[in-house]
Amino acid sequence: MLNVGMTELLCFAIIALLVLGPEKLPEAARFAAKWYGKAKRFIHSVQTEVDRELKLSEFREEIQKEIDRMTEIEQRLQKQLDHLTQSTQQEKTHEPSSPRYTWLSPCRLTPFSANFVQLHGADAVKVSRSYLPSTLKIAV
User: Fold this and answer.
1) What secondary structure, in 3-state letters, does the chain show?
2) What is the average per-residue pLDDT within 60-83?
């Protein structure tokens, strides 16, 4: 913490011994150690408080970024919803009274369909109906 080497400590101890004398030196050492411990604990508590505040500020920044991202998504969804509502309202005003039907491509494999009857004739429908039972029984 203070980058004090062994020679500096030795010089400090010799000067303290000369100034205080052998009777007061142990009491002064205890006093210095006590204040050194208090200073070290205070510095440690300040460091942990600063670290906690930094983590809290980083967390707040992350939350703010997520909130901004969510509001952007909400605005895009609102624009899409508005566009869809406008387009459906325009279609309702321009829509003819008869319903619209979409014709699918003809399928030759579907029996009883109009294309099947046109390709194979009405007799094919009668023949295929003969394979169906007249009454349908359902097992319960």
Assistant:
1) CCCCCHHHHHHHHHHHHHHHHHHHHHHHHHHHHHHHHHHHHHHHHHHHHHHHHHHHHHHHHHHHHHHHHHHHHHHHHHHHHHHHHHHHHHHHHHCCCCCCCCCCCCCCCCCCCHHHHHHHCHHHHHHHHHCCCCCCCCCC
2) 94
Report yes or no: 116 and 108 within 8 Å, Cβ to Cβ: yes
Nearest Cα neighbor of 67 from 56, 55, 75, 79 is 75
What predicted TM-score, i.e. pTM, was given to this entire model? Answer: 0.42
Q: What is the pLDDT of residues 90-136, one digit of tens each?
A: 877 765 555 555 555 555 555 556 666 666 666 655 554 444 455 55
Task: Quote the CA–CA distance of 94 and 81 in Å, as a whole number.
Answer: 20
